[in-house]
Amino acid sequence: MNTVKSTRRFDSRLIQKPRQQPRLQRTAWGFVTIAFWAFYFYLWAPLVTLISWLLGGRMAWAQLYEQKQTVDPFVVIALPVMLVCCAALLIAWAEYNRMRFTGKERRLPHDDVTREEMAHDLGASVAVAASLADGKSVTLHMDEHARPVRVTAGALAVAYR
């Protein structure tokens, strides 16, 4: 009996290509993930409450909701509803723009600048412009009028101290 051992380890718990999973399975695991994140945040609630209380959250609650020791039902309902509406509107606008601009190039293509134009705009020779365009790492030497006069190719950048 001849067995071949694979040198590559495979962990079946890791998903290499999540898009090849069935949509129902991905959705179910998404809900499981959300549930565990919610539980995790629930565990942090006492500490968040303590910090909020120390920073004046109790006073803010009293000013917003308990004016004259009565709870204003309009404010209790209106503020969370406005919060949810604003969040839904923002998400809807983002999704609209994502669908609208997905796969579309919004910028117009520009023609490449010729080396002659680059040399003219820099106030340098065509040879200097060609060296700048061709070099990966260059040092540019300039005259007293800040015009490029020479290029040294392959030089390393000097770090400031």
Our Rg estimate from Cα atoms comes to: 32 Å
User: Roughly what percent helix?
Assistant: 40-55%
User: What characterizes the major β-sheet?
Assistant: 2 strands, antiparallel
In sequence order, what are the helices and strands, one letter per element?
HHHHHEE
Shape: elongated
* Structural class by SSE content: mainly alpha
Distance between the termini: 67 Å
Total helix count?
A: 5
Task: Enumerate the strands of the largest sheet in spatial order, edge to edge or round the barrel.
Answer: 1-2
- Low confidence ranges: 157-161
Q: What is the strand content?
A: 5-15%
* Record field, number of beta strands: 2
Mean of residue pLDDT?
81
What is the fold's blueprint, element by element?
Blueprint: H1 23-54, H2 57-65, H3 73-101, H4 115-122, H5 126-134, E1 138-142, E2 148-153
Antiparallel strand pairs: 1-2
Helix pairs in contact: 4-5
Notes on the structure:
By secondary structure, the chain is mainly α. Helices cover 54% and strands 7% of the residues. The chain has five helices and two strands. It has a two-stranded antiparallel ribbon with strand order 1-2. Helix 4 (115-122) packs across helix 5. Mean pLDDT is 81; it is low at 157-161.
Tell me briefly what this model is.
With 161 residues, the protein is mainly α. It has helices at 23-54, 57-65, 73-101, 115-122, 126-134, and strands spanning 138-142, 148-153. Helices cover 54% and strands 7% of the residues.
Q: Keywords, please?
A:
single chain; mainly alpha; 5 helices; disordered C terminus; PGA_PgaD; membrane
